[in-house]
Design brief:
By secondary structure, this protein is mostly beta strands. The protein is built from no helices and ten strands. A hairpin with a 4-residue loop joins strand 2 and strand 3. It starts with 18 loop residues before the first strand and ends in a 7-residue tail after the last strand. The model has no long low-confidence stretch (mean pLDDT about 90).
């Protein structure tokens, strides 16, 4: 029996390479491709969104050290799939076509 404090994680329907737009938060309205997706935590890293500064120690790869800018993960519920053809956001849904399961844009019906 599951613990009462355990939360069931909703399915992450976004994948690496999807073009998304941020719908809430400080970076609202920014668009970019997903660089990495973390289904277990429900977070994604979007290019040029939620940039943070990270202080690095000198290493063999970076002998100088210093401050670097990098993308930090944001919650997947704060981004939505963007359809360039319709110029609007949409949800990805799964349909069975020709015996295989494919992702489809809900509004346009285009295969992703």
């Amino acid at each position: 029996m599951a613990n009462k404090t355990e939360k069931k994680q909703p399915k992450l329907r976004l994948k690496k390479g999807d073009y998304v737009v941020v719908i809430s938060g400080d970076d609202k309205g920014k668009k970019g491709h997903i660089l990495k997706a973390y289904p277990k935590t429900g977070k994604v890293i979007v290019e040029k969104v939620h940039m943070i500064k990270k202080h690095t120690k000198p290493s063999q790869n970076n002998p100088q050290g210093g401050i670097i800018s990098m993308e930090a993960p944001i919650d997947a519920s704060n981004v939505m799939l963007f359809n360039d053809r319709l110029n609007t956001v949409s949800k990805p849904v799964y349909k069975v076509r020709e015996g295989r399961r494919v992702r489809i844009c809900k509004k346009s019906g285009d295969e992703l």
